[in-house]
From TrEMBL:
<dbReference type="GO" id="GO:0008146">
    <property type="term" value="F:sulfotransferase activity"/>
</dbReference>
<keyword id="KW-0119">Carbohydrate metabolism</keyword>
<comment type="similarity">
    <text>Belongs to the sulfotransferase 2 family.</text>
</comment>
<keyword id="KW-0325">Glycoprotein</keyword>
<keyword id="KW-0812">Transmembrane</keyword>
<dbReference type="GO" id="GO:0016051">
    <property type="term" value="P:carbohydrate biosynthetic process"/>
</dbReference>
<dbReference type="InterPro" id="IPR005331">
    <property type="entry name" value="Sulfotransferase"/>
</dbReference>
<keyword id="KW-0333">Golgi apparatus</keyword>
<keyword id="KW-1133">Transmembrane helix</keyword>
<keyword id="KW-0735">Signal-anchor</keyword>
<dbReference type="Pfam" id="PF03567">
    <property type="entry name" value="Sulfotransfer_2"/>
</dbReference>
<keyword id="KW-0472">Membrane</keyword>
<keyword id="KW-0808">Transferase</keyword>
<dbReference type="GO" id="GO:0000139">
    <property type="term" value="C:Golgi membrane"/>
</dbReference>
<dbReference type="InterPro" id="IPR018011">
    <property type="entry name" value="Carb_sulfotrans_8-10"/>
</dbReference>
<protein>
    <recommendedName>
        <fullName>Carbohydrate sulfotransferase</fullName>
        <ecNumber>2.8.2.-</ecNumber>
    </recommendedName>
</protein>
Length: 179
């Protein structure tokens, strides 16, 4: 996302300092296109998609949106609701040590219930194919998130952008421990 923003005109120094979410910055400069516009662009563009293991994606979303939710945010309130509805009532002693966010099993239980009910589910918690239609586009390259460090080098070389952008990794993840 860093390099997309550089190509969109943001300076690398601004991108390193900003507290804004890089995806939101990119969306300001790259408006959503129609499927017809996308297909037309394929005629003169190198197309690629970055795929991620679905379980890695789910675990990452759980950590980012539940474990490290901003106080009073939508995800913080959702997490508290999951705890209220899916956590067994702990003893008074256990309650003091209890976390305010759902455990991963509680989160998965809630998610499966949402799927069974056909309820709306936040885009971070569902398969990418639920909100994106990668099968409608013929991609020239499929990069893997798990090997993105190497894959982006190849993409930069293949596109001839080696002198314009450099590989940059800015993971906004906030921790490693999963409960």
């Amino acid at each position: 996302m860093f390099n997309f923003n550089v190509l969109a005109g943001y300076s690398p120094s601004y991108l390193r300092k900003t507290k804004k979410i890089l995806l939101n910055l990119a969306r300001e400069r790259y408006p959503r296109v129609t499927l017809d516009e996308l297909r037309e662009a394929q005629n003169y563009s190198l197309t690629f998609i970055i795929a991620r293991d679905p379980f890695e994606r789910l675990l990452s979303a759980y950590r980012d949106k539940m474990v490290f939710a901003l106080p009073y945010s939508f995800h913080d309130k959702l997490g508290r609701s999951i705890v209220r509805n899916y956590r067994k009532k702990p003893s008074l002693a256990a309650r003091a040590a209890n976390t305010k966010f759902p455990s991963f099993p509680e989160f998965v239980h809630w998610l499966l219930d949402q799927v069974k009910r056909g309820s709306f589910i936040d885009m971070h918690f569902v398969a990418a194919t639920s909100f994106c239609t990668p099968c409608l586009i013929r991609f020239d390259m499929i990069l893997k998130f798990e090997s993105l460090a190497e894959d982006q080098l190849y993409l930069i070389e293949k596109t001839g952008l080696k002198r314009v952008i450099a590989p940059v990794w800015r993971n906004m993840g906030k921790g490693r421990k999963t409960h």
